[in-house]
Amino acid sequence: MTTHKATAERQGRFWVVRVDGLPEGEQNVTQGLTWTEAHENARDLVSLVLDIEDDPAAYTVDLVPADPAMFEVVREAEEADAAVQEAEKRRRAAMTRAARTLVGLGLTQAEAGRMLGVTHQRIAQLAPKAPDRNTKKKPLAA
Known about the structure:
By secondary structure, the chain is of the alpha+beta class. The protein has two domains: 2-66, Double Stranded RNA Binding Domain, CATH 3.30.160; 72-126, no CATH class. The chain has four helices and four strands, in the order βββαβααα. Strands 3-2-1-4 form a four-stranded mixed β-sheet. A hairpin with a 2-residue loop joins strand 1 (2-11) and strand 2 (14-19). Helix 2 (68-104) runs antiparallel to helix 3.
């Protein structure tokens, strides 16, 4: 997948966007009233200039503010969000491991849930009970 870098500068009520990496002599500027519109118009510009289908799987446009102060706070927020997502992934893995271990050690799902601060239903999702092999299955009615 190709990523096209674009910078947006606020001019009056509009965002003026310059897309890098387009062929020399081709249109490389677009605008939008909102950030979302500016981003969509930048994608459209890339699609038109390069004569490619506007498919999110084919290419992306990385739109960043030209203003250094805006760029810095946006980058900082994106890094913080990525850190939160990574921490959430580690939390899910730790909760799953804990639930499976506690249930495996003989605790009930309710007991494990109370220990971990979640409902017994959540424990059942994380550590489903193994089917009881001693229970005979009832024949299905024909």
